[in-house]
C-alpha cells in the first residue's frame, strides 16, 4: 500500500497507538527474557535477530499483531488513500472500513433501565407481535438507528454507532481532528427514542442532546455515562428512562484534556448562549411594545415570536426553519410538497380534557423519526425544502376558515405573485388580494384558499408581523418592503440566535434519508394481502372469487397517473387507461373501479376503511353473471420511508336486464 508523504506520520501514529494498547513492548520483553534464560544457556554466547523472531513466532506474538492489524483493498471516495487498514475490536464495527486519517467516536448503547411505564409489561413470547423501542441518532450530518427491541422496563438496547468527527474549516476537512479541535465542536449527539405499537403507530418517547466531549478527558480513551431521558411535551419534566452509553475515541488521543478544561469550555458556551438569548428577549419585548402602539387591536393578532419544542424549551420560531437541500431524493418543489403531505398529521397529545391545544413544535429530527406531527412541523419542513430549491418561502401563522389556528407556507414570485402551499395536502392556491377601495361594481377576485386571517410570516432570517388594518387573508397585501403594512424584526437580532452555529442550544439540521422500501416488493406483498382479505370477505358472504390478472395489471397505469397528478398537478395518461379498459371488457359487460389513497401499508386497516365506502363495497361484494374481480396496489416510496399507497378495486360482470 502506498501512502502519501503527508499521511505517513498520521499512519505511523495510529499503528504506534494500537501497539501500545496491546502492550506489545511488555510482551516482547517477556519473550526476550525467556529466550535468553531457557533457549540459550551459558554455552551459547550470541542471540541473533533471527533466533529472536523465531521465538516471537513460536509464542504467537507476531500472529496476534497481524490479526489485530491488517490491510484490505477497498474503494473509497478519497483517491489519495487507496487502501484502508482495519483494527479488530470487540465492537459491532468489526468489519467497518476505518479511514486511518479520520477521528471517530464509537457510541455504544449497552442497555436501558427504569422505563417505568413498561414495568408491568410481560415478556413477549417468541414470534409474538409487541410494541418496540427504536433509537435514532444524528451527529454532524450522519444519521443512524438501532434495531427495534421489545418495550420493557429494562429494554435490551444493545447497539453500536461509529460517528466520524471531521473538521469544519475549508481545506481541513481531511485532517484528523485533535483534542483542541474536538473541544471546539459543540454539536451534540441527538438521541431520539421512538415507540412503535402493534398497529405500527409511532410515539415520541424522548428527545435528548448528548454532549460527548467528556470522553476527551478519559485517560483510557473510553467513558461510560448514564443518560436520563426525559419525556416530551407536557411530560418534559418527567423521566422516561435511562440509557447506559459508552463513548470511545478512535484512534485514541496521545494527550487527553483535563476535565476542568472541558467543564470551563461548556460553561463558557452556556454563558454565551444565555447572553445572546437574553439580549434577543429584551429586543423582542421592545419590538412587541412598539407593535402594540401602532394599533390596540394588534393584541389579538396571531403574532408568534417564540414556540416550545418537544422538550418544553422556548425558541424563536425562525430557528425552526433552515435552508434544507434534499440532494437527489427530491427533484422539484412540488415533489417536496408531496413528500411533506405524506407525513401523517397528528396534534400533540394532551393529558386530560378541556379541548385546549398542546403547544409543541418539534425539532426536525424528532418529526422525521416519528413520521408524523402537527401543521407547524409540516409547514416549517416544507418552507425549509422550498428555500433549498431557491424559492422565496415563508411560514404563515393565522387561522383557517372555521377560525382555528393554523400554519401554512407562502412563496413570492419575482413577478410579485403570491402562492399559498398547504403542507398537509400539497394543494397550492394563487392569492389575489381584494381591493377594499375599488368601486362597488368593479370586478374583484374570489378567495380561493381556505385561510381566514394571517398574523405574521417568517423564515430562517426574516420575521414580519401584519400591521394592516385588517388581518383577513383576502384583503392582505404581501408587500414586505412597505413598513406601513408589515413590521419587520431586525435581521441582525434574528441572526444572533437563529443562524446555524450562533448558539449551542440550536438543534443541528439533520439530512433526509433515502427510502429503504423496495416499491415492487412492497406493492406485491400488500396486493397479495388485499386479495386474501377480499376472498375471505366474499367467502363469508357465500360468494366465490375469480380474479382477472390482466385487468389487475391494466389498473397500474391509472394508479401511476393519480400519483403523478398529486406530484405535479398535471393529469395525464387517462385516455390510454380508458382505452385499455374498453378493450378488456367485452360487449354486454359492465366495468366498475374504485381508487383510494393511504399513507400506511396496513392491509387490514386499509380494507376496513375501503368497505366504509358504498362504491367499494358494491365492487367487493359484486353479485352477477360472469363476475371477475381485480385489485392493484402501487406503493410509491419517498424519503424517510414516507409512502403514497394507491389501491384500486375493480370488477367486470355481464349486464342482465
Q: Could you give the count of β-strands?
A: 25
The gyration radius over C-alpha positions equals 32 Å
Indicate the structural class.
alpha+beta
In round numbers, the mean pLDDT is 86
Distance between termini? 84 Å
Please give the order of strands in the largest beta sheet.
19-18-17-16-20-21-22
Q: Detail the poorly predicted runs.
A: 70-95
CATH topology-level fold name of the largest domain: C8orf32 fold
> Per the principal axes of the C-alpha atoms, what is the gross shape?
globular
The quaternary state of the protein chains shown equals single chain
Classify the helix fraction into a percent range. Answer: 25-40%
Work out the count of structural domains. 4
Written overview of the protein:
This is Centrosomal protein of 76 kDa. It is found in: Cytoplasm, Cytoskeleton, Microtubule organizing center, Centrosome, Centriole. Keywords: Cytoplasm, Cytoskeleton. Pfam families: CEP76-C2 (PF15627), CEP76_C (PF24652), CEP76_N (PF24654), CEPT76_peptidase (PF24656). This protein is of the alpha+beta class and about 650 residues long. It contains 15 helices and 25 strands. It folds into 4 domains: about 5-70, no CATH class; about 85-170 and about 175-255, C2 domain (Immunoglobulin-like, Sandwich); about 265-350 and about 360-435 and about 445-500, C8orf32 fold (Roll); about 520-655, 3-Layer(aba) Sandwich (Pathogenesis-related Protein p14a). The radius of gyration is 32 Å and the shape is globular. The protein is about 30% helix and about 25% strand. The chain has helices at about 5-20, 25-40, 50-60, 60-70, 180-185, 260-295, 335-340, 365-370, 375-390, 490-500, 520-540, 550-570, 575-585, 605-610, 615-620, and strands at about 70-75, 85, 105-115, 130-140, 140-145, 150, 160-165, 190-195, 200-210, 220-230, 240-250, 305-310, 315, 345, 370-375, 390-400, 405-410, 420, 430, 450-460, 465, 485-490, 590-600, 625-635, 645-655. The strands form 7 sheets. Strands 19-18-17-16-20-21-22 form a 7-stranded antiparallel beta sheet, with helices on one face. Helix 12 packs antiparallel against helix 13 (about 575-585).
